[in-house]
Amino acid sequence: MTVLILLLVEMSHASVKSLSLSKKRKIRENPIQNVNAGSSVKRSRNTTQSQSERTNISGIEDTRRCGKIISIHLTNFMCHSNLRIEFNSRVNFLVGRNGSGKSAILAALVLGLGCNAKVTNRSKSAKDFIKIGETTAKIEITIANDGPQPFDPDEYGDSITIVRTITTSSGYYAIRNSQGRIISKKFDDLQRILLYHNIQADNPVFVLNQDSAREFLKELEPSKNYQLFLKATQIDLITEKLDECLHLHKAHREELANTEKKLQYMEMDIAVHKGKLKELIAFEHLGDNLKALNIEYHWLLVKQQEDKLEEIHKKLDKYEGKVNELNKLIHNKDEVNSILTQKIAEFFENIKVKNKDYSDVNQSLRKIRCQIDEMIKKRSEIEMKIESLKKKKSRLETHINELKQHIKERSKSNQDDVDALRRQNEESLANYRKQCETSLMPLIESLKRELNTLMENKSQKEVIIDKIKQEHGSCSHKISTINNQIATAKESIKNKMLIYGRHMPELLKEIKKAHADGKFSVTPVGPIGAYLQVPNNQYRDDCRIFEEILDKLSKGNNHMIVTTKFMRQVYDVSNGRVLPPSGTSLLMELIECRNPVVMNFLIDRMHIETILLTDKKNIAESITSIRENVPHNLSKIVVLCSDSIHLEYYPVPHYRTYSNKIRRPKYLHINVNERVKHLEVEKSKLENQLSSLKKDLELLGPQLCKDKEQIQNKRALLEEKEGALMEIQQKIADLENVEYADCNNELQLLINEIEERDSLLTEIDQGVNEKDLELNKLKSQEEALKDDYGREKNKLQEIQNEIEGMKAELDKLNLKLLSINDNEALNKDRLKSLTEQCNQFEEKKNKIIELINAAKQSAEEKGERLISNITVDEVLTQMARIKAKLQRGRPIDLDQDSLQDLITHKERELETKRLIYDNLKISIDSLRASLRHRFDFIKKFKGHMSMLLTMSFEMILRLRNYVGNLVPDHQNKTLKISVIPRDHDTASVSSARALSGGERSYSTVAFLISLWSCVDHPFYFLDEYDVFTDEVNREYMTRLLTEEGRNHAWRQYAFLTPQDMSLDPENFIRIHRLAEPDRH
Q1: Range of the domain at 1044
Q2: pLDDT tens-digit profile of 358-383?
Q3: Would you say residue 609 lies in a domain?
Q4: Where would I find the Rad50/SbcC-type AAA domain in this sequence (predicted)?
Q5: Together in a domain, 358 and 379
Q6: Cα-Cα-Cα-Cα dihedral of 675, 677, 681, 682, to 10°?
């Protein structure tokens, strides 16, 4: 039997926790660690406490958690020969320039925790990560096992070290305990440890590498955002497993339907065989059945005659009874009269007895009636007493009210002034409070909000004006520089050397003079740009190599002097050059230079014989990312993406990509007119930009003055309203402290009298209650007597009804007695008629008896009598059918035993398959219900997690007064990010693509932190989170990530950045500064 397996997935979610960057930080010691090759620092151990608590005995928050990264040790891995990093259990910053090996640490983390090499986005094979010149690489990752719920603590201790050794041909794992002893070398054991500690190194939400971070920060595609959301919450994995279960369930449903059809066919087959068995059995008994039916037929004939005889007997008995009765009436007239007379006398006696009973019951009824009347009288007397007490009570209450009114009138003359003052003060107090709560305080709050808004707008405009002024000065300086360059270029039409500076012709003249005087052994060569030509305009204008060369030759009109040995011919680089694959060009072949000294200089300094150029990214990626495609001697490939940006690809095993801006080369040997034309176009653009900046400055200046004036007015109004509020609050305090005089002692006598009246009133109430109890008792007795009265009355009625019945019977007897005497002749005529009818029935009876005897004799010859409930016609029909079947012969060739065995075998087979079918159907239905429940749950869970994600994202944006939201579309599988910065309106920014680099980076980090708030993981690694941002947004994002680590002490964070940073000293932050690795 096929077994259907449904994957059960346990899901958990974390609540969204608030984040605040305004919290004051306490100054602590900043543990900054400079990480160099071969460095080793011991991890500090926390004192072991209860695993179920987050804080230790001293009140300090316990940051221990299983799965956190304690240290990473790399040997011969990528660019690192021997690197060891000890991580802080909370927040770590890995700082190093591009190429220092930051991303290598992230790749080692992913590979060391059992992931495939493809996850790193750097190579498809782990052996490509071995350092050049080495045959093996080793990754050692130590994770914590001393927090709540450790994995096999008796065996592994408080830490687990995972060692992955990579060779050129294979690789293997080793798992060590805290003492360094190898516990296991099985990959399955590693998977169990990672699953137990919920470590997902292949999840980009928890480990976001360089390429993924760059692409994510740049694109922010709704579909990719949604996929990241599914990956973070593991909904994609759950959905995939549920889909597999659904397909498997459909297959089993089809199999179940086929099995059901087979069972139905088997049931039909068994029914057919049973029908044939019945026909066979019936055929073998047809003769006996026919004989039995024949016997039954003859006895049914007997029964027909017996029924007729019985009917005649009934009629005969009826008429004979009437005849006997008439004979009695005729022959026993005197006796009947005597009997009737006696019965009449008995009825008279019975009536007399009943009349006596009636008289007794009637007397008892009158006695009960008298008792009821007496009870009614007593009840009336008690009710009158109660009414009297109530009237007395009313008089006392009236008297008490009069005394109270008298007290009020007596005290009014002395209390009026005090009461008037109290009421006046209470009204004033209520008015003052109402004025504060409904008028002044809301107005002051509104003024403060408006003032804060104006101050923030003023600060933003001042920042924008300063930025515009800086750009204005920069544009003016650039225009001045371009004017000088245009003048120099126009002058260089007559002398091309003037392009390199006004003093260049004089410098060359002095060099020639010094050489003629014998001061130089060989004439110096320069400037180099005069010897270089690039026939291809694309590379002549945009190639970064030329920019690097000429940038070294002219910076602030300071020329570089290079001392080298002059050769008369270009170096032979046939063994060291790279052969360009299809779609690429060698940089050395694109440069035309007839001077061998200059060409040798470019080979020595720039290695132009190892650099390839192309304009297609896919060609560069395919060549540099796959070891088999990398040409010999290749150092890098330059890809021209646009007029302003190009990419540099470095080949494996140190595969990486860098983007750079292109500055147009100024000192190549070019056409002067073209150079002048280009400078004038650039000048025109700068002048347009300068004009736009002036307009913006003119527009923002009046707005800033207006904002300052509004701020001054708001402040004055706020001070005025706050002063009024303080004055009213002082008045309220004064009124609340007023004390009032008490004049009630003079009225004590009147109050005492009222108390006496109240005591009398209490006694009256007690008397009323007692009378009420007595009245209720009388009422219950009265009700009992009424019940007795009703019963006696019913009994009297019954006796009366019996007397009337006896009188009716007496009348009938008198009437019958009269009828006997009057109807004697009529009875004789009726007797004669009935006698004749009895004789006729007697003749019919004799004839039927003869027929019955003859039929019995014939039936007894056939067989014993049978009792049957069918008719003669039905028996004849059955007999005719049996005779027809006997004429047709046997219905089947098999004998009865063989057919019965065949049916039994088929029934057993059907029962077995039916049991299998029922069990399978129950299992499939149960699993289908479970599958439906899980699909419903994952739908609700997806909505719940998206709601938590949206709430957290909006909350983080509000920290910078941004407005935005996440719009999940589960049907189209998209997650759109919408962000509106505080200095933009809704219409100007419609999506994340319209944001600046810093705003987009901040929004992206906010989105990642929102994802972190929805799911839990021991550690979070983020590479180059600040790659596209400015300094302000970078600082704010760093503070935001640091605050995330502060608020989640049970998590570990590591952030990789090429930018140096300075943070306030915190004991939960460690900064690792990576030095340039030894690449030889």
Answers
A1: 63-208+1039-1051+1059-1079
A2: 888 888 888 888 888 888 888 888 88
A3: yes
A4: 71-323
A5: yes
A6: 20
